[in-house]
Structure to design on (233 residues):
């Protein structure tokens, strides 16, 4: 059996305005940004060390996140006041801490704060704010969620821009990001020890113009080689 699939799905819990708990339901509407869960053996071997949960069922549950604030930043940039997101959790073996990956499957916005925290960029000078300053125009299409549920707070970046940014400094956890960014993501990452690693500079305009990777379409159309009935690879 695949690790994590014999566990119960994320529990449904009542949440207060400041609670970190999320309420999970079945996905609704058009899913433009589904997770990559149908992987070949090579891609699956790259995610094994990260204890991804609930891998194989990420796309079966979504969380609804309403957002209400005096700031009009979110509505002006997205045209929406709530989001439907996919969520999964991975454990970084370097510090044995768990991090939640979250993205809006309709608009494609990705919460990037956990990636920076995982790589030790927790302060303002080295975190998302610095990255936005380095990439002209990216702040204009990024919103900062400050109210509502704590687990959803932080910077949310358009999908292709988030993928491009993470490719500049997330190679050590690249396998953990395959369910959101696809099986080619590790190969697209800049390696540690090179001059460009960790600079967090991208061509954000090109990233915005590009469609999603073709590999995502191929992945979700492939037969599920990692279903419940298959023995552990």
């Amino acid at each position: 059996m695949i690790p994590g699939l014999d566990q119960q799905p994320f529990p449904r819990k009542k949440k207060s305005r400041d609670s970190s708990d999320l309420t999970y339901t079945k996905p609704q509407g058009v899913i433009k940004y589904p997770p990559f869960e149908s992987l070949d053996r090579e891609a699956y071997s790259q995610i094994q060390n990260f204890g991804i949960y609930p891998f194989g069922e990420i796309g079966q549950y979504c969380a609804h996140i309403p957002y209400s604030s005096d700031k009009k930043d979110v509505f002006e940039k997205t045209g929406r006041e709530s989001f439907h997101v996919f969520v999964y959790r991975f454990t970084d073996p370097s510090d044995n801490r768990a991090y939640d990956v979250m993205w809006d499957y309709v608009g494609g916005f990705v919460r990037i704060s956990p990636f920076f925290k995982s790589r030790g960029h927790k302060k303002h000078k080295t975190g998302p704010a610095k990255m936005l300053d380095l990439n002209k125009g990216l702040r204009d299409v990024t919103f900062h969620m400050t109210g509502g549920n704590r687990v959803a707070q932080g910077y949310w970046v358009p999908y292709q821009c988030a993928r491009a940014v993470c490719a500049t400094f997330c190679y050590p956890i690249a396998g953990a990001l395959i369910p959101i960014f696809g099986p080619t993501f590790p190969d697209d990452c800049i390696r540690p020890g090179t001059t460009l690693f960790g600079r967090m500079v991208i061509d954000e305009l090109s990233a915005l113009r590009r469609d999603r990777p073709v590999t995502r379409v191929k992945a979700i159309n492939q037969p599920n080689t990692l279903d419940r009935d298959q023995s552990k690879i």
Residues 159-166 form the longest helix (8 residues). The beta strands are 24-25, 62-66, 82-92, 97-104, 109-111, 143-145, 154-158.
